[in-house]
Amino acid sequence: MTAIPDSYDIAVIGGGNAALCAAITAAEAGARVLILETAPKPYRGGNSRHTRNFRCMHSGPLGPLVESYSEEEYFSDLMKVTGGKTDEHLARLAIRTSEDCLPWMEAHGVRFQPSLSGTLSLARTNAFFLGGGKGLVNAYYRTAEALGVEVLYEAAVTHLDLADDRIAQVTFTHAGEEKTVTPKSVVVASGGFQADTDWLARAWGPAARNFLIRGTPYNRGVVLSDLLDQGVEQVGDPTQCHAVAIDGRAPKFDGGIVTRLDCVPFSIVVNKEAQRFYDEGEDVWPKRYAIWGRLVAAQPDQVGYVIIDAKSLKLFMPSVFPPIEAATLPELAEKMGLPPDKLCATVDEFNAACGDPSGFHPTELDGVSTSGLTPPKTNWARPITEPPFYSYSLRTGVTFTYLGLKVDENAQCRIGDRPVTNLWAAGETMAGSILGQGYLAGFGMTIGTVFGRIAGKEAAAHAN
Amino acid sequence: MQTDLIQEARRQAEICNACRYCEGYCSVFPALHRERAFSDGDITQLANLCHNCRGCYYACQYTAPHEFDLNLPRALAEVRQASWKDHAWPRGFAHLFDRSGVLMAGGLVLGFALIFALAQALRPDSGAGFYAYMSHGLMVTIFTPAFLLPLLAIAVSLRGYWRTVGGGPVRPGDIWGALRSAGRMKNLDGGHGDGCNFEDEDRFSQARRHFHQAVLYGFLLSFASTASGTVLHYAFGIEAPYGFFSLPKLLGVPGGLLLSVGCAGLAWLKLKADPELGAPAAWGGEMAFVLLLFAVAVSGLALYAATGTSAVAWLLPLHLGAVLTFFLLTPYSKMAHGFYRMAALTRDAAQNRAA
């Protein structure tokens, strides 16, 4: 074991948005900072590299954001998705601080762009990064390195030595060697555990082995489990993850935004027995996409199949893989590995239950519904009749896990009833302190930025 | 067109269309996001609209080692290069693109030798300045066809390009839009105004934009200088040599300086940039083109500085040889990009207007 010779005030574990915000803030306060990033350089940045925006409170036009977005409205949007499972004090802190964050982000190299085509509904609430999250991560690394922050890639932290109420030593592997560093303060910003399939399977059940991971393969929860094993206080449902339905052909890891499918409301979705299992038209897609991860996870082999016809093909955003196409339904079933007779029967039954489709309107709840069908389709129910027919396979794509480190308003971790004097956490690894369930677009980056900056400030104050 | 290049660019464009994170960088993405499916003409237009600023590459979460293996700047550069060969006229000259580096070096030597030999053999009995070495009539005899024939070739090529990309009637407003974009190098400002990524990975800088502007405006000033000399000669009977406070010199000297600095800067940046983000096979030809333009500018300035000395005897053939090579290879070298870029920007302006 090699003790690395340099003396650092602060070790930041992780290399995504929260880690970088902490490192930059601490370095600006005069601390000597070391970033330990597990990923190799091309994959640095954790899940932040797949993000695209930052949800931001604002009392008037701010940067790319139009009109205003009040604390109350923001908080109420959050409560809707978490069903009240929210720490109000920390949530309001994140929301209130977000307004200061946007100019801070710009000052540290982040550039914004107008709301992307296809996302106009977010133009008021979410500031989009020019180039997406990897652009943000690149800018922060440039800024951090200019401030003298040192970055070690492929540095996998294996153990934080908790002695009494402080972290005495950080152990990590790098370049094939086990090394240690003894900083005065430690910031953990290394995400959740969703990329550890075994852990996911223990938590969720064996079905989780068939899940795809939408983001980085490096969030394996090594530091999280190491700290929880030593009694550091945890938060969040350990069995739960945020999951959406994505293209079944997506890679196991890192498929990101392009694997999403927005076609469910205009389709019927069947399982491998060619049976429907849920109302595809329950609500507009932005409000429903998050439940479909679970719905598909509950089906045999954790797969679903979207079936649409020619008239619906252009109603949704294109995705990375083209749909499977066939001139007839039996041929489509053949290509998708579905029982042809059963698929035809399911479609016939659905078509027969469709009423008058003349009120069809793709962007609002149109009430064009089936009658006498179980489960019903309560909006956008048009018969599937017009060849060619198209299908996408669906799988459960995990975005993040909820289990994390419980922190206070100073982003500080706790053990028993007392704080760990030199340990702070930021980003996904503590987001469970605020998000008990559900997700609000762009709020992960808000939590990461707000608590990353707090953690960096506190860690530097402790070290100085 | 090599279908595999188009197909690879199409594969990548479809991934970009599902992501859209890069929308604000340049004109390519809004144009790309307008389509759902990409015809060969669409891909060719996107390729010629791309200024290779590389912002999208460094921001992309799907570049290698990711299995999606995106490198849009390279895919579009390869299609762009192939599209110029595809539209080259006469058809048989298309392969000159593959050898433009060697041709420029060879052209420089041969052009120098030719003009030196002509100047020696047909040295005028009288004449001032460089006309003491080569008569006005001889220069006109060589350079009129050497200027007009390449322009004709380019015009035919552009007409073919316009058909490929499905361009309709050309509106003056669209040309104006293209001129405004090129005049400010809008597509190299990164969308945020910080410039582009080129010489130092993901760092944004104005270096390439500013050096390119120096080349563009330097070239236009130099061209205006020659044009003003022609007007003075024919319309006013005022013949070279011109003094410093004359239109040809007031335009030509700053033009030559800008061109020299711009070319040197672009060559320097090109050495630092990652060749894998362009069309690697075209790298040599592009570099040779920048150096040839540099040679044109520097030899022109040197010729002026050497006025009245015996060095004019070899500087004049050197400069004219470089200019001759530059003109003749315009339709089959990197110089073609300016014409195609204007066509692509004009087409884009028309599509933006229609959208």
TrEMBL record, chain A:
Taxonomic lineage of the native organism: Bacteria, Pseudomonadati, Pseudomonadota, Alphaproteobacteria, Rhodobacterales
Requisite cofactors: FAD
Record carries keyword Oxidoreductase: yes
Keywords: FAD, Flavoprotein, Oxidoreductase
Domain spans labelled FAD-dependent oxidoreductase 2 FAD-binding: 9-436
Pfam families cross-referenced by the UniProt entry: FAD_binding_2
Example GO molecular function: oxidoreductase activity
NCBIfam families per record: CobZ_N-term, PRK08274.1
Top-level taxon: Bacteria
Stated name of the protein: Tricarballylate dehydrogenase
TrEMBL record, chain B:
Domain of life per record: Bacteria
Keywords for the protein's UniProt record, in alphabetical order: Membrane, Transmembrane, Transmembrane helix
Transmembrane feature ranges: 101-122, 142-162, 214-238, 250-269, 281-305, 311-332
Keyword Transmembrane helix recorded: yes
Name recorded for this polypeptide: Citrate/tricarballylate utilization protein
Organism for this UniProt entry: Marinovum algicola
